[in-house]
Specification:
The complex is a heterodimer of chains A (318) and B (261). Chain A has 12 helices and 2 strands; from the N terminus they run αααααββααααααα. Chain A has 318 residues and is an all-alpha fold. Chain A has one domain: Orthogonal Bundle (ABC transporter involved in vitamin B12 uptake, BtuC), CATH 1.10.3470. In chain A, strands 1-2 form a two-stranded antiparallel sheet. The longest helix of chain A has 27 residues. Chain A is globular, with a radius of gyration of 19 Å. By secondary structure, chain B is α/β, with parallel strands linked by helices. Chain B has a domain of 171 residues: Rossmann fold (3-Layer(aba) Sandwich), CATH 3.40.50.300. Chain B has 9 helices and 10 strands. In chain B, the strands form 2 sheets. Chain B has a 6-stranded mixed sheet, sandwiched between helices. In chain B, strands 2-1-4-5 form a 4-stranded antiparallel sheet, covered by helices on one side. The longest helix of chain B is centred in the last third of the chain and has 16 residues. Classes of the chains: A mainly alpha (318), B alpha/beta (261). Chains A and B meet through helix 7 and helix 8 of A and helix 2 of B.
Chain lengths: 318, 261
């Protein structure tokens, strides 16, 4: 296997991340410490895992507006089952991930069978998942979650820095998903579907199956994110996922994945998620209101989408 | 050019409501020839090609491949039977590499556990074989990891042709392969089609471009009103007479006997 230099699309976000780190490192002594960077990773892990599913969907030229709400549903299902119904923890976790996967399946079926636009489908499931979560939990936070369910929120020591297990889970997910995307036929088919659906179909790729699979796998990612969210906060929160919902899309776009499908890489998404995390953490450290973080993220998103649009126009020979 | 019959169709009928697209058309393709299919709009030309490439299922009639009846229900069925189609709108994935496009839907996996358990693609082999296929057709592109969108229109069509030539066992169907190309690029693709034929494959060429048809074809199948009205020999028929037969201004019986093939 020949190692290729990262393309401009993946290099840009990386440069932005390094510059942001350098900036906050100069402004705050605490920013570049191991403990603080570990906190950044811990803050990023939930949205990072959601963004894996979101990347897969955006690569097929779709979008999932429901991701954060679906995650909240998964978190409420697994904690409620374990706390209020005494369901064994592994089974409760399985049910939570099953619930998010089922929503993914519904999204996928609506997109592939009824050929509805993903934007509208997931706008619908966004509201359905939110309402279901509120109704199922009576809008109450589920507390007294068993320790075994929050185990991934535990830490281990590397030198003087404690690292959360969930971060390792997130990094493993990125590695496995990157392998599948770049080294297997299934991954190449996903890119082909996003790149030119008709060409993919004529090449003998079962395009509806690829699309359906992507939405189902994305649902599983949201379930895993739900588990990490519960582990991080220690509770089942019916209002979780509201920030993550759009942050996941932001991470994907910042990471250089094209909203038009077929172009991009998961590594970029991880970088994009880290950019969001670094700005949030860094601006807090130097005492700037978190509203500015939202402002900066907005500007970055528009820059990233503009760069994508520009690359598309420039890169295509007509 | 009188090789064995590779593909044959008899009495193909296709109706859409009360519109009859194919009205009992016949078709015959011989080994190692370029058979051009011409016809006015609505003559049933594209329905015929769709039936042969599996994109539509005829209501009546029979298709024989190497003398055996075949029933294609999807383009995939036709591909499995060794019939490849090159589409006019350049059916490639632009952001993907040449090698990835060539092997799209037919990826090669590594040998052993890497391939079977981890489903790992054999990228070096796909790149090497792509280079071989493109060189065999003298398509002057060297980097197989180059994105297809970085190629010119002619080179892109070259990739599509190389892909079909690489995998076709019997027949390559080319649907208006030069329609989207400029003059120079068209010339390149015409040469390419000839080389595909010279490798022993039977080529069906659908084209509106009469000079291209007359330059390339060994025989010309004329479609009109859902039927085959003539099979012409381009060496013994004028372009204007061929067009006259195509539009119904002249009957094939009016032509001299050696104009028919």
């Amino acid at each position: 296997m020949k190692l290729r230099l990262p393309s401009a699309a993946t290099l840009g976000p990386l440069v932005a991340l390094v510059m942001a780190c350098a900036f906050f490192g100069m402004r705050s002594d605490r920013f570049l410490t191991g403990d603080n960077l570990s906190i950044v990773l811990q803050q990023v892990m939930v949205v990072g895992v959601i963004a894996v599913g979101q990347t897969l969907i955006i690569l097929t030229a779709g979008v999932d507006l429901s991701c954060g709400m679906v995650m909240a549903l998964g978190g409420i299902v697994m904690t409620t089952l374990a706390v209020e119904h005494g369901v064994p923890v592994p089974m409760a976790i399985g049910c939570g991930i099953g619930a998010t996967t089922a929503v993914g399946l519904v999204n996928g079926l609506l997109v592939t069978r009824l050929k509805l636009p993903p934007f509208i489908v997931t706008l619908g499931t966004l509201n359905i998942a939110f309402a279901t979560t509120q109704l199922y939990s009576n809008a109450q936070t589920v507390t007294d979650v068993p320790d075994s369910m929050t185990a991934l929120g535990g830490t281990f020591q590397v030198g003087n820095t404690s690292i959360v297990y969930g971060v390792v889970v997130m990094l493993l997910l990125y590695m496995v998903a990157t392998y599948v995307l770049t080294q297997t036929a299934a991954g190449r088919h996903l890119y082909a579907v996003g790149n030119n659906l008709e060409a993919a179909r004529l090449s003998g790729i079962a395009t509806p199956r690829v699309l359906l699979g992507v939405y189902v796998v994305a649902g599983m990612c949201y379930g895993l994110a739900a588990l990490l969210s519960v582990a991080r906060t220690g509770v089942g929160d019916p209002n979780a996922g509201q920030a993550e919902n759009l942050e996941a899309i932001t991470a994907v776009v910042l990471g250089g994945t094209s909203l038009f499908g077929g172009r991009g890489a998961l590594f970029g998404t991880l970088v994009g998620a880290l950019i969001v995390g670094v700005f949030r953490n860094g601006l807090t450290l130097i005492g700037v209101s978190s509203v500015y973080q939202v402002l900066v993220t907005g500007v970055l998103v528009i820059l990233a989408v503009a760069a994508d649009q520009f690359a598309r126009r420039g890169g295509r020979a007509t | 050019m009188s090789g064995a019959v590779v593909m044959q169709a008899t009495g193909l009928v296709k109706r859409y409501g009360h519109v009859t697209a194919l009205d009992g058309t016949d078709f015959e393709l011989r080994a190692g020839e370029i058979l051009a299919v011409i016809g006015d709009n609505g003559a049933g030309k594209s329905s015929l090609i769709k039936a042969l490439s599996g994109a539509l299922v005829p209501d009546e009639g029979e298709i024989l491949l190497d003398g055996r009846p075949v029933h294609f229900r999807t383009p995939i069925d036709a591909r499995r039977a060794g019939i490849e189609t090159v589409y006019q709108d350049l059916a490639v994935a632009p952001a993907m590499s040449i090698a990835e496009n060539l092997f799209l839907g037919r990826e090669l996996r590594r040998a052993g556990a890497l391939g079977h358990v981890f489903r790992m693609l054999d990228k070096p082999r796909m790149i090497a074989e792509s280079r071989m296929h493109l060189q065999a057709l003298q398509i002057g592109v060297t980097s197989m990891t180059q994105a297809v969108e970085s190629l010119s229109g002619g080179q892109r069509q070259g990739v599509a042709v190389a892909r079909s030539a690489a995998f076709a066992q019997h027949v390559v169907i080319m649907d208006e392969p030069t329609a989207a190309l400029g003059v120079k690029e068209s010339g390149m693709v015409l040469d390419l089609i000839r080389r595909v034929r010279d490798r022993g494959l039977a080529v069906v060429l659908i084209s509106h471009n009469m000079p291209h048809v007359f330059e390339l074809a060994d025989r010309i199948h004329v479609a009109r009103l859902g039927r085959r009205v003539a099979v012409l020999n381009p060496k013994h028929v004028s372009m204007s007479n061929a067009v006259a037969v195509m539009t119904g201004a002249m009957r094939s019986e009016d032509l001299s006997p050696d104009a028919r093939a």
